[in-house]
Design goal:
Blueprint lengths: L12 E7 L5 E7 L7 H7 L1 H4 L6 E7 L4 H6 L1 E5 L6 E4 L16 H23 L4
């Protein structure tokens, strides 16, 4: 299944191969350099890919530590085939048998929270200044 990497927060490029229909992650690999992307070479050398037809496999490439926090704290379990959004599961400290699967990765939740906070701060400033 999915391999665990120690340097998610420093990777330059991550390759994620997944099933085009189900989104099942077939293989992922993080690199601290920019590798040559060669689907045919990977297909020939990776057992998890060779077991499928080439047409059933998609490749998603992440750069410069995208989703690094989510990879460090959770496990990638799926790629949405239509949107290419990633789905992670995280350890549940209260019940290790049932991992937590949020609707959005940590980075997206954080960006939305920051945007909401900025909007609230702007509204509060307008109220304090008597501007409606």
């Amino acid at each position: 299944m999915i391999q665990v990497y120690n340097a998610y927060n420093t990777y330059k490029v991550m390759k994620i191969y997944y099933d085009k229909v189900t989104g099942e992650v077939l293989f992922d690999q993080a690199y601290n350099y920019v590798p040559v992307l060669n689907f045919d070479n990977d297909y020939a050398n990776l057992t998890s890919l060779k077991q499928r037809t080439k047409e059933s496999i998609a490749l998603l490439v992440l750069r410069d530590g995208e989703y690094a926090q989510s990879f460090q704290e959770g496990t990638l379990i799926k790629v949405d085939p239509e949107t290419q959004e990633l789905t992670f599961e995280y350890p549940n400290p209260e019940n290790p048998e049932e991992p937590i699967i949020p609707n959005k990765p940590f980075e997206e939740q954080l960006a939305e929270t920051i945007a909401y906070s900025v909007e609230l701060d702007f509204r509060l400033t307008k109220l304090e200044l008597g501007l409606n």
